[in-house]
Design goal:
- The chain has helices spanning 3-7, 10-20, 23-28, 34-41, 45-57, 73-77, 81-87, 92-98, 103-109, 114-118, 122-128, 130-140, 142-145, 173-181, 193-196, 199-206, 241-254, 278-283, 290-299, and strands at residues 62-65, 68-70, 163-167, 186-191, 212-216, 229-233, 260-264, 267-268, 288-289, 303-310, 314-320.
- Helix 14 (173-181) packs parallel to helix 16 (199-206).
- The longest helix is centred in the C-terminal third of the chain and has 14 residues, at 241-254.
- It is built from 19 helices and eleven strands.
- The mean pLDDT is 93.
- 45% of the residues lie in helices and 16% in strands.
- A hairpin with a 3-residue loop joins strand 10 and strand 11 (314-320).
- It folds into three domains: 3-77, Winged helix-like DNA-binding domain superfamily/Winged helix DNA-binding domain (Arc Repressor Mutant, subunit A, Orthogonal Bundle); 86-143, Helix Hairpins (Orthogonal Bundle), CATH 1.10.287; 147-273 and 280-320, Rossmann fold.
- The chain is an alpha/beta fold.
Length: 324
């Protein structure tokens, strides 16, 4: 691997472009000739040819004859919906690609430079653009991140758990899995109205629609009270400390005696340093150790009791207002 290879921006941008133009899908449908591919994608054939030939040189696609292209193993991966969402420049993939151009601002200031590139901060950008918000919801849902597992361990087991509030749970995939494997549990999904509006199909597909309901609101507003578990899965890592503390405080305010807050994803082992992650550039997110979370929880009226590694996947950190 040479420095030139490491600095090459052509290849990733070419991949983004062919995904956005659905070139792999067109080839899979039987369109192979360059002129026909360009016509299907409504783009310039000469330039598309240069893009495809560069990707062929990097091992993506095959040029089986002059200006005739076919899929190979790597190119077939571009047909997967989860891959496409993260690379499509017309959706959230475009935001994630272009935001790397603000890395210098992030390094110089410690603050995301998203607004300097897109005109408003990340969450405001999603609020102002329904299609972008839907693309983001798809990315963090099963289509992008895969089907989540509701099988995670908590201290003392699940026998005493009757209710779960999934705070910032997107379109409900995780809550649906929790309820599906635990028939005695009910759940409430809390997320923005446009997001939870898409949860009905998720709950119905899992057969849990009778035990799940939604609340379309911000998680900075008061949460449903007296649930047994307030789940924060992939939420705190999207926010700086001030906002993360506010989210934890809302959970603390809502939790009754014996209620607990469970934090998943974005938790790193003690002694391990943070890796640079896309949510840091998008919205100033953080990956935190259990000690970091202990400090945040303490300021929010909570106490961290334990962090349990869930197999080889991630930690589940549990907090409550009192020991149990």
């Amino acid at each position: 691997m040479s420095l030139e290879d490491l600095c090459d921006l052509r290849t990733p941008w070419c991949v983004h472009v062919v995904v956005t133009l659905r070139t792999a899908e067109h080839i899979a449908s039987g369109i192979r000739e360059l002129d026909a591919l360009a016509s299907a994608a409504k783009c310039d054939a000469r330039v598309l040819g240069m893009v495809l030939r560069h990707l062929v040189s990097r091992g993506i696609f095959v040029e089986s004859a002059p200006d005739r292209f076919a899929l190979n193993e790597l190119a077939r991966e571009l047909l997967e919906p989860g891959v496409r969402i993260g690379l499509d420049l017309d959706g959230i993939g475009g935001r994630m690609a272009h935001v790397w151009g603000t890395l210098l601002t992030f390094v110089r200031t410690g603050e995301p430079g998203y607004a300097e590139r897109f005109g408003r901060p990340f969450w405001e950008d999603l609020d102002a653009n329904a299609a972008l918000r839907e693309s983001f919801d798809d990315l963090i849902g099963p289509m992008g991140h895969g089907r989540p597992s509701g099988e995670f361990e908590i201290q003392g087991g699940w026998d005493s758990i009757g209710s779960v509030v999934d705070v910032g749970g997107g379109t409900g995939a995780m809550l649906a899995e929790i309820l599906r494997v635990r028939p005695g549990v009910t759940g409430i999904l809390v997320d923005l109205p446009s997001t939870v509006a898409r949860a009905a199909a998720t709950f119905e597909a899992a057969g849990v629609q009778d035990r799940a309901r939604v609340m379309g609101q911000s998680f900075f507003e008061p949460l449903p009270s007296n649930a047994d578990i307030y789940l924060l899965r992939g939420v705190l890592n999207d926010w700086p400390d001030l906002e993360a503390e506010q989210i934890l405080r809302r959970c603390s305010e809502a939790a009754g005696p014996g209620g607990r807050v469970v934090i998943m994803k974005g938790v790193i082992e003690e002694g391990r340093r943070e890796d640079l992650a896309i949510e840091m550039l998008l919205c100033g997110g953080r990956h935190r150790s259990i000690n970091d979370l202990r400090e945040l929880a303490s300021r929010s009226g909570l106490r961290v009791h334990q962090g349990t590694r869930q197999g080889d996947r991630y930690f589940a950190v549990e907090c409550s207002k009192e020991r149990y």
